[in-house]
Every structure is written in C-alpha cells, then in structure tokens.
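The records we work with from here on pair a chain with its fold. Each token is a code from a learned vocabulary of local backbone shapes. A record is reproduced here so that you can trace the correspondence yourselves:

_____
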Amino acid sequence: MKMKIPLLCFALALLFSVSMPLQAAKLNIGSAKYDAKKGELKVSGGLTGSPSGTKYSLFDEVSGRLLGAVVAGEKYQLKTSDFDVANPPCSVRVEASGQSAVASVQNAPAECSVVKFTLTGVVRDEPIPFATVTVTVGGTTFTTVADADGKFVIEIAGIDMSSLVLIESTGPNPTDETKTVDMASIAGTLAKLVEDADGDGIVDGTENPNINNTPYTTALFVLLGEANGGETPTTLEELQNAERSVDATELLQLAAVIKLIVDGGYALPIDPGTGEPYETIIGFLADAEVDGNGNTPVDNFIAVNEEAIDTAVEEILNDNDIIPAFITEGIPDRYYWLVPAQVGFLSRGGRAYDFRSTPTQTGEVLAVQSGGGGGIIDGKYDWDVVNGKLVLDWTTVAIDSFFAFDGPTPMFTRVTPCPSAAIR
C-alpha cells in the first residue's frame, strides 16, 4: 500500500501534464525609452521561439505611423529618430509574426505623438489678397491671413493620422471688393501629408495641389460633397468613394463658373429660394434645387454663358498653377479611366491605359466594347507631355476625345482628329 500513493501521484501529475496545453510564446516589449539628448527612441523585447529572420515593425500607437523595422531572432532592439524630436510617440506598438505588443514610452514629453506641419499655399485664380485661411484637422481649427498675392503659410498639428485636412478661405473679390470670394479644398489625410512632406515637415502646393484654394479645388470640393449625400466627407473611405463619382466634365465646368465669378466680373445669380443674390460661391454651386425644366441654378448659369464657360475651361486646362502639369518622369505604368458612378454603384465602363517609356514612348488602351457587344478593344498610341499636358497620339485606332479624372491631376487630351465618336 505504501507504494501506491507515489505511483498515484505520479500518474495524476502525468495526466495533468498531458492534458494541460502549453501556452504559446507572446511578443513582448521589455523597454521603450526616449532619449531627449540624442533625439532617439529605443525599444527592445522578444518573442520566444521566433526564428532568425523574423521582422519586427515599430509603430506610433497613437498616430499609427510606422517608425521603423528590424529583422532579428528571439530578441530584438529597435532604434529610431524618424519623428519630430519635439513630439516623440507617447506609446508604441511592435508587430511580429501576427502578434502585437503595446507599451508606454518612458521620458516622453507632454506633447508626445503630435504631428506638426507647415502648409504653404495660395488662394487664387487671380490672387485673392489678404484672404482668411482656415485649416480644420480632426475638429481643431488653425487660422491665418494670406498676403497681398494670396500666399499663405500656416502651422497645423494633429494626432490621428486618418484625419482629413480641410482648407477653406474667404477674401475680397479682386474684380469687386464689395463682394466676397469663398474657396475650399480637401488636402487628404494627415498620413498623406506625412508622405508629401518628404521628411521636412513642410507641404506646399507643388507637393500637394489641394493645399491651394483655386476654382478647380473648390469645384472638386463641391462635387465631393454632392457625391457624399450633400455632406463634406469626414473619413478617408467617404472621400475615396466620393472621388470615384466625380465627373471630369462637370468638374471643369464648375471650375469655369467660379473663374467667371472671381475673374470675369460675373455676379452671383439670384437665389430662387430667397429672391436675393447667393451669399457665397460654394452655396450657389451646391444648390441642388431644380426648376420646372429640371435645371439647377448652376445649369442655368452655364446655359446662359456657354461660350464664356468654354473659354474659361480652356484657360483652366492651360494654367499649370490651377491644374498641376504632367511631367514625363511622373507618368505611371497604367492609368484607369472609369465612367463616373453614384456611390454604392458599379461604373458602367472603363479603360486601362498602359504607358511605356522605353525604348520609345508608346502605349496601349485595353477595354471591353459597350452596348452589349463585349468585344475587346485594343488600341495603340504614341504619347508625350506637351506644355504640361499628357497627349495621346493615336496611330492605329481612332477614339473620341474625352477627359479622364485622376484626383488633382490634369486631363487627358488627344491630338489626332477623330471622324467618329465610336471606337473603331
């Protein structure tokens, strides 16, 4: 009997050792410290059993910004100075092998994780002197006043990298100082500004054209709101969905309307709802009420001033300060042209344009024939950048002229006249 108790205990111990699963190794952060003298953040930790070649990625936990990465084994150490030294991360996140770990940063100052930028832009078609410029980031507003040439410099800050940056301006109409000009733009997210800044914390209108307020950015702002159910987009998802619904022809026409009001001396029309002139340009453009003929106030303005609108569209297309110029080195391998669609609906059609720069500048358009035919369209062309425009010279296929919208970029134009609107 004396031998049975130890054997029983041994059996029970064996039973529990078999039935209780081993806990998987967890990624950990052993230390996260900020060295103010060196302007350096050092993070170390480990993942037991992790093989050599494991990638450890370090993020600012608040902003979500990637700070650095290292390849290591069970133990890792990350050092980085890739942040504003005055605003290091409050807390960090390390990701590896499908796991993540979070830790507060020791010695981080009070204003940690704040991302700061300096925006430099201009309010213009003709310069709008001394315009008041307001930038809104995540519910926080920053305000400055432009100089006599409509140029402005403003410092902004934010924490949430997904926040959209809204830029609005008001100033005297250069053709009638008793009237007010209002313009607007959405410059993208804070994360996009980080990319645009190229590490120097400064973003100007050449790096991001939507830093500027122009007839083009304002027309785009209005159409984005219209596509988003009449509300200004507040998230990146809403912005991207709305962008897919923008019609380039309508965008240029609205920009031309603004140009005529700002530069051409055209007065804001009468608001049918009040019997008084519209108070703001954006209010006029955004009025979706239709008359007995099914036309909006903007539709009627365009119809009455059709010739002037066409002239203004050409001036806008040829003004690289309003629509950024193409550069040969910046042409991507492929552009997609899609028929605008309402949010939540598929586009009715589209084309893919391939661009090759070597050995010669040639390209090819690929599409599916509309009208139920379903045939494959395969047309070739030569391309070039002429005076800031991307020009397609069709050599083996005729195609109707069109405008193709791709964010703030210029429009496609075509050189060779086309005798038919059909693709052949």
In short: Helices lie at 4-19, 190-197, 215-227, 236-243, 248-262, 281-286, 297-304, 306-317. The longest strand covers residues 176-189.
